[in-house]
Design goal:
- This protein is α+β, with helices and mostly antiparallel strands.
- Helix content is 26%, strand content 48%.
- The protein has 3 helices and 5 strands; from the N terminus they run H-E-H-H-E-E-E-E.
- Strands 1, 2, 3, 4 and 5 form a 5-stranded antiparallel beta sheet that branches.
C-alpha cells in the first residue's frame, strides 16, 4: 500500500516536472548577411574600390546616394536567440548586431566604421 502511494506520487511529480520543462518556446533570429572582422580588415581607405567590396562582402544591405560623387553602403547582420518559458513567465534574449558603414567617393572607400553590439535581456513577469 505504501509502495503504491509512493509510486503514484513519483509518477505525478514526474509528469508535473515534464509539463513545466516542456513549455519553453525558442526563436532564432538571423537577419542580413553575416560578415567577419577579418573581412573588414581587408578594407583600405582610399585604396579599396566598390568592386573590391562586392568581392569581399557581396551586395550591401543599404545603398544611399549622398551626392554626385559620394555613396554610403551599409552591411548589417543581426543574430541570436530568444526564449520564453510559459509557466515561469521568464523571457531571455541574446541578440547581437554587427554593422559596417562605408563612405564611398568616386567608387573608392573614403572612410568606414564597424560596430558590434551584444544585447542580453532577462525579464521575469508575474501575474498579481
Amino acid at each position: 500500500m505504501i509502495l503504491k502511494k509512493l509510486t503514484n506520487k513519483s509518477t505525478l511529480l514526474l509528469m508535473v516536472g515534464l509539463l513545466l520543462t516542456g513549455c519553453v518556446y525558442k526563436s532564432d533570429v538571423n537577419y542580413g548577411n553575416q560578415f567577419t572582422s577579418e573581412q573588414v580588415n581587408q578594407i583600405e581607405k582610399k585604396v579599396t574600390t566598390t568592386s573590391d567590396l562586392l568581392k569581399i562582402f557581396d551586395q550591401p544591405s543599404i545603398k544611399s546616394v549622398i551626392s554626385e560623387t559620394q555613396e554610403k553602403w551599409v552591411y548589417s547582420y543581426t543574430g541570436g536567440t530568444a526564449t520564453a518559458q510559459a509557466f515561469t513567465m521568464k523571457t531571455t534574449s541574446n541578440i547581437s548586431t554587427h554593422m559596417l558603414d562605408i563612405l564611398i567617393e568616386n567608387n573608392v572607400v573614403l572612410n568606414f566604421a564597424e560596430t558590434n553590439n551584444v544585447n542580453n535581456m532577462n525579464l521575469n513577469t508575474s501575474v498579481q
